[in-house]
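Give me structure tokens for this 248-residue protein.
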Amino acid sequence: MIEDYRLEEYIPASGERDEAAGLTLFYLVQVLDKIDESTRIGRRDAAMLAVAYGKLSRGIEVADLLVKNLRVADDGVWVYTAKSKTRRDGEGKWRFIRDRTDLQIVRRVRAWLGDLRELDADNPTLPLFRALSTTGNLKGRSNATVRGLHLSGRAINEIVKNRAAAAGVTYINGLKVTSHSLRAGPNTDMKRAKVPLADRREAGDWGEKSPLPDSRYNRPDGTVDATETDPLDAVPLFGRFKEDIAEP
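Here you go.
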């Protein structure tokens, strides 16, 4: 009876591990290209995606960033994490994300910081990413008693999912794109580029002995579009093989 339950009930219900897709750079560029960066919401979201990918961030770490946690140079962006799941106590950590023509992190971060200045919301101690109204103004947060002015991890997740859906990449190889995809994606890209495990641990703020970059956060098929080929494509529509169609 237990075995029957395991096969018929447990596995269909929850036996498969719920993993996020790897939003690798190949797909991330497609998502960024679909964002209208002439709007304030678009500039916020583009900067958010670029920072999260470059830093291999967890969603809540993106939400917790303050304005002072970002320093922009001509050749890249410095991002500071005060604490993380790995480092719950102790000193924070800076990570440098070099600018690239595909990610364009410097341009996107500078554009968003300019918006914060216009909104008079660029005080160093204020959250970096803010809730905005449809018109691009700061949204009232008087009812947000838990997170205050900070977005929630759930809000970051919804932004990522909605932007991915708008670009037609809701799923990548059967896995759903979520905010965690911005952690799995760059790790997958770096492993595919033969970046050593120790360097990937450092970039993603994993523990020095953690196996997760190679086990849970590597999506080896993340840069291959599995929808390009399907053996069933060889079967004609409605199964109408020529030999089955009677001569007139």
